């Protein structure tokens, strides 16, 4: 599918900071002809079947997180089971991947994991992923990166740990230069993030691994980084922007242009909006062969895109959304692998816990 098969956005400039808004993405899709939509969906299916065949389920609840799973933590700390399970599985995958070490007992102030001297949580919010990491594995130095101010933060509990040094960096990830953080200089670190919305994932990867390069040039991997491991749970793919996307060259080589990319990001909202009480497990793997109702005869009937979407089954919309999420994150994984580390893209929780269930995980980055 080439550029001529997809109509470009009619107003490419009006989002905040030059971004393409969801409304603009929607309008571009709805301005397509039925034939163009059919070609676009076929393109998505073809790309997905060629690059997304090995995204494994990896729901890991480690023994080390028992204190949280069994609700044995400070009663003042918020406990929402779905978030605790997600946080625990992120850490479980890090342990399974060999980035974190489980001492086999509850962490005391003298029993910290020396293999990870520092942890940076990007998009930290209130910092409860780091709170669980500190409670269950032990860490010496923590940097919480968050541009917003939050109440009910984990900071107070974290600061009560005598051997833990905590520093909040109130800054946008896009503006963060880790080389300018004096207290981090020369210290190996682990980068984590839970539900980094849209382009925040790309900005985090660029912050940790990307060499600074002139605007418009391809982002390149920084081999001088002190990064030892990485675990990023991606989120809100509908907010992704071509301008910020970390691996435009990879998608371009697959025939995915800027306008196709923004259409793909718009489709991802269907995965999140779907009824996840229904059984979609394993469905995405077969979605590449899915025959979407109405596409074959829509040209003959003179129907438009709106008619096609109305006739599509909910499961078809959801599976199309999941395929698009896979494609976006697979491009990110390929960019990480440019540095030659061991890296994977996994589904770290069942979609019934959260449809935002992709985790990028890597080690051996230096």
Number of strands: 10
Strand numbers in spatial order across the main sheet: 1-9-10-8-5-2-3-4
CATH superfamily of the largest domain: Vaccinia Virus protein VP39
Please give the domain count.
Answer: 2
Number of helices: 13
Question: Can you lay out the helices and strands and say which pair or pack?
Answer:
Elements: H1 22-30, H2 34-51, E1 56-57, H3 66-69, H4 81-96, E2 118-122, H5 128-136, E3 141-145, H6 155-159, E4 165-169, E5 189-197, H7 199-209, E6 210-211, E7 220-221, E8 227-235, H8 248-253, H9 258-267, H10 269-273, H11 298-301, H12 305-311, H13 314-336, E9 342-347, E10 358-363
Parallel strand pairs: 1-9, 2-3, 2-5, 3-4, 5-8
Antiparallel strand pairs: 6-7, 8-10, 9-10
Helix pairs in contact: 1-9, 2-13, 4-5, 9-13
Q: Overview of this structure, please?
A:
- The protein is an alpha/beta fold.
- The chain folds into two domains: 3-52 and 248-324, no CATH class; 56-247 and 326-363, Rossmann fold.
- It is built from 13 helices and ten strands.
- The strands form two sheets. An eight-stranded mixed beta sheet has the order 1-9-10-8-5-2-3-4, with helices on both faces. The protein has a two-stranded antiparallel sheet with strand order 6-7.
- α5 (128-136) links the parallel β2 and β3.
- α2 packs across α13, α4 crosses α5 (128-136) and α9 (258-267) crosses α13 (314-336).
- It is globular, with a radius of gyration of 21 Å.
- The chain starts with 21 loop residues before the first helix and ends with a strand.
- Residues 1-14, 104-113 and 212-216 have low confidence and may be disordered.
